[in-house]
Amino acid sequence: MPADIQFFIAQQATLDNWPAPNTWLGEDEIARYVAMGSEARRTEFLRGHWLIRLAVGYLTGRAPVSFEIRQPEKSPPIFADVPGLITSLSHCKGWLALLVLQNEHTPTLKVGIDIETERDRPNLARLAEHSFGADWLNRHQDQLQPAFFERWTQCEAVVKASHLPLGTKLLRQQRFAATSECNEGLWLYHTRLQEQPPLHLSLATPYPVKPEGFQWVGHKFSAIGPTLAATRAPIGTHAPA
Fold first, then answer.
1. pLDDT at 170
2. Mean pLDDT, each 10-residue run in order, the chain (241 residues)
3. 6-233 in CATH: which number?
């Protein structure tokens, strides 16, 4: 498997051509699937876990149904037969995004990914002020919609790659610095993909990486090459930026 990190995106509706789930879901996955309260959540779960298998199969050259996956409570899926594989999965409005990193030396590392469609939201200014504070809202008023979804995905990715809870306090205090201004914390990557509507994608990693991107199109993965802007995300109490 390549050493650098890979991210994969897919429209959920393109992932429904899978074998019978009982032929590839593990015991933990089946238990979680059965406990879900709605058909929509179960379908989303299957799509996400099939994307994970497709992606890791693509990277390793193995059949997607061949992996043994454990799914502990409050944990990302664990590939029992691929040492050091670390993943993060995000769902949003018909899209899925997956981040995959292999680090056999430090398998307890965490990574984070978040994807959001840029869209109209009622009371966006009020939500932005509540989440990020009045000063942030004043600075981004002219381009509020793209700025809001950029920052939201950044915060979500940081939370997934750390042990912090997502909450108003973190949202307002989190500082994202230019790489030259910070020597510690998570590395954070963001891009705005020109889909319709646009997609905001943020990745958070414990060390600098060179992300490779792939999109599931026509029953296969095709490489995509967006430019990802890199910043640092110090973990702790900071003035918002």
1. 73
2. 80 90 90 90 92 96 92 81 90 93 78 94 92 94 95 92 77 83 88 92 93 93 93 67 51
3. 3.90.470.20
- In the chain, where the domains are located: 6-233
Burial of 76 (0-12, 13-18, 19+ CB in 10 A): middle
- Residues 185 and 187: their CA atoms lie apart, in Å, by 7
Give the 3-state secondary structure of residue 223. Answer: strand
Residue 110 backbone phi and psi in degrees, to 5: -120, 145
- Closest to 216 in 3D by CA, of 7, 3, 44, 4: 7
Question: Residue 119: phi, psi to the nearest 5?
Answer: -150, 160
What is the distance between the alpha carbons of residues 140 and 125, in angstroms, rounded to a whole number?
Answer: 10
Stated length of the chain: 241
Whether residue 197 has a cis bond before it, omega within 30° of 0? yes
